[in-house]
Amino acid sequence: MIEVKGLSKRFGDIHAVREISFSVEKGEIFGFLGPNGAGKTTSIHMMCGLLTPDSGSIIINGEELRPGSTELRRQIGFVPQETALYPELSATENLRFWGGLYGLKKDELDRKIEEVLQLVELSNRAKDKVGTYSGGMQKRVNLAAGVLHNPDVVFMDEPTAGVDPQGRFAILNIIRELAAKGKAIIYTTHYMDEAQKLCDRIAIMDFGEILGIGNFETLRDEVGKGFQIFARGDFDGAKLAHQLKNDFEGEVLHSGRGLLAVVVADATELGRFVAAMKGHGVNADDLKIKETDLETVFLKLTGRELRD
Ligand SMILES: Nc1ncnc2c1ncn2[C@@H]1O[C@H](COP(=O)(O)OP(=O)(O)OP(=O)(O)O)[C@@H](O)[C@H]1O
Ligand SMILES: [Mg+2]
């Protein structure tokens, strides 16, 4: 449904997006996971036709997206990172405004508005001013505006950022519902647990590059199925790794200031690890052992933590 090949964009010296390629099918949820400045928004803007790429191509429903592709752009829905709503207007009025821009006629528009308000579960608040809504509700109106014209491909830029867990849950269900209707969803986030739960496939992005791409199981192979110990505290991770070399067996995943992460064969290794640390007079403020998840994969691929 959408195919992206070798897409790149520079802003002066900043290489914001470097040769990214991937494709997304009908009904699929594809996630871009990356920290601030990774190039997620720049990628999305190019794919929606809001920003001209320096090189590369975007093919939607078999047709290449170009600056003049007005018809093709009707098949694209875009939900921006910043909500673009008029606080003094109600949800219905806001949606009327957006629908007008898409060229929808009154009767059809009214029908569509009712439909999307139901989808985002705001029918009962439709007449209230958007300025009186919670942040999560505003995000839902924003989302409704992006899918009003029933596009085949929907781009969402951090639709859940800054929303509380309950609100995030509601938004994720809306995204699932849209995918179930056959839309291709391309969405960005920096919430790893969310990407792992929601997405059929994920692209891990950092410094404009896609470093890993696939479903969770494929990405997990970068680290391997198993357990990792994460120790945090007031210590030098690299020094600690060196000290532990002889009294503890486990491959070092990452060592840095205040963090040592090691891959272990079995969860029972935790006791030995702690004992070895104590043997060197080092205490951890925070210690956890977990099975390989997207956080570990991200650390392995980028050499840093997403929370930084
Ligand atoms: N219009 C612009 N002019 C100059 N530099 C830009 C512009 N837009 C983005 N950049 C730079 O390109 C890089 C990628 O930015 P982008 O907004 O795509 O990242 P992002 O992954 O969406 O980040 P965030 O999670 O903070 O939204 C950053 O270094 C940013 O400063
Ligand atoms: Mg962004």
How would you explain this protein's 3D organization?
The structure is a single chain. The protein has eleven helices and 13 strands. The chain has 308 residues and is of the alpha/beta class. It folds into two domains: 2-220, Rossmann fold, CATH 3.40.50; 227-291, Alpha-Beta Plaits. It has a six-stranded mixed β-sheet, with helices on both faces. A four-stranded antiparallel β-sheet has the order 2-1-4-5, with helices on one face. Strands 12-11-13 form a three-stranded antiparallel β-sheet. The radius of gyration is 22 Å and the shape is elongated. 41% of the residues are buried. The mean pLDDT is 92. The structure holds adenosine-5'-triphosphate (ATP) and magnesium ion. Magnesium ion (MG) binds at residues 40-41, 81, 157. The site of magnesium ion (MG) has 4 residues, from helix 1.
How would you summarize this macromolecular structure in one to three sentences?
With 308 residues, the protein is α/β, with parallel strands linked by helices. The chain has 2 domains: 2-220, P-loop containing nucleotide triphosphate hydrolases (Rossmann fold, 3-Layer(aba) Sandwich); 227-291, Alpha-Beta Plaits (2-Layer Sandwich). The chain has 11 helices and 13 strands.
Structural descriptors:
2 domains, about 300 residues, Rossmann fold, 6-stranded mixed sheet, binds adenosine-5'-triphosphate, Alpha-Beta Plaits, alpha/beta, binds magnesium ion
How would the blueprint of this fold be written?
Elements: E1 2-11, E2 14-24, E3 29-33, H1 40-47, E4 55-60, E5 63-64, H2 70-73, E6 76-79, H3 91-101, H4 106-119, H5 135-147, E7 153-157, H6 165-180, E8 184-189, H7 192-198, E9 201-206, E10 209-214, H8 216-220, E11 227-236, H9 237-244, E12 251-264, H10 269-279, E13 286-291, H11 294-302
Parallel strand pairs: 3-8, 3-9, 6-7, 7-8
Antiparallel strand pairs: 1-2, 1-4, 4-5, 9-10, 11-12, 11-13
Helix pairs in contact: 3-4, 3-5, 4-5
The chain binds adenosine-5'-triphosphate and magnesium ion.
Magnesium ion binds at residues 40-41, 81, 157.
